[in-house]
Amino acid sequence: MNYGFYLSAAGALASMHRQDVLANNLANMNTVGFKPDRVDTRQRLPQRLQSPQDFAEPQFLLERLGGGLFAHPSRIEMKQGTIIATRNDLDLALEGDGFFVVGDDAALDDRDLRFTRDGRFTLNARAELVMAAGGLHVLDVNGRPIRLDPAAPVRIDRQGAVIQNDVAVAQLRIADAPDGDDLVKVGDNLLRFADGATTAPQPSRASVRQGFTEASAVDPIITMNAMMTAAKAAQTNLKMIQHHDHILGQTINTFARVA
């Protein structure tokens, strides 16, 4: 097999993967509190160094070409989005690192918790504070749903205290943002701890802004330019595959005639 096939195919796959991730980011440029994914690439070592147990013979000319380009698993960029005023008392935004903690039930294991920056909240039929998108309960510091008096005005201070009739009725649970490798996306603008993660949710010092939401952290111009670059890289590698195929065909035909 022509060694160039492997190198060009690896480059094409990495570029197409990067293009897919960037396209998903761009599709969520208007999603409240969305955090974009980032794709990093790395150069794979030659086979002899990548798998020393194979005891491959040194091929110094090929090894100078490297082992191809591969994509690392995507990571979540935790950068802050723009804070936008909505004038809705149940809309909340976080300034700083952290997530609102939401879930299905009152008593949940840490692995069942979900994290979000989407602060569009509302009251359900039982007057419990829930996400407007999806209906998951917004949890307090004790891991319980927050029940409010729908007839009374609500005020939420910068520390996350929920106040009605001048009395603090609950304290929002806001978890600090762990390392990007410890969180994975599960859809619906939610995140959870990755399998095997050893980090437990820690309290956050993020400031709560009532009557605001956080816009998507996607920069559409930068993302579009990166998509175009990835698309050109994929096309270039696919053309190189065709070029190697043409050279291989000519080689076979030439040697066949000589034989």
Total tally of structural domains: 2
**Could you give a short account of the major beta sheet?**
4 strands, antiparallel
Task: Give the overall shape.
Answer: elongated
Strand content: 15-25%
Radius of gyration: 26 Å
What's the average pLDDT? 84
Structural class: alpha+beta
Helical run tally? 4
Order of helices and strands: HEEHHEEEEEEEEEEEEEEEEEH
Say how many strands there are: 19
N- and C-termini, Cα separation: 20 Å
Residue share in helix: 25-40%
**Uncertain ranges:** none
The assembly state of the depicted protein chains is single chain
Label this structure with key terms:
single chain, about 260 residues, alpha+beta, 2 domains, 4-stranded antiparallel sheet, 3-stranded antiparallel sheet, 4 helices, elongated
Account of the 3D structure:
With 259 residues, the protein is an alpha+beta fold. It is built from four helices and 19 strands. The protein folds into two domains: 3-77 and 218-258; 83-214, no CATH class. 28% of the residues lie in helices and 24% in strands. Strands 7, 8, 11 and 15 form a four-stranded antiparallel β-sheet that branches. A three-stranded antiparallel β-sheet has the order 12-13-14, with no helix packed on it. A two-stranded antiparallel sheet has the order 1-4. β9 (121-123) and β10 form a beta hairpin. It is elongated, with a radius of gyration of 26 Å.
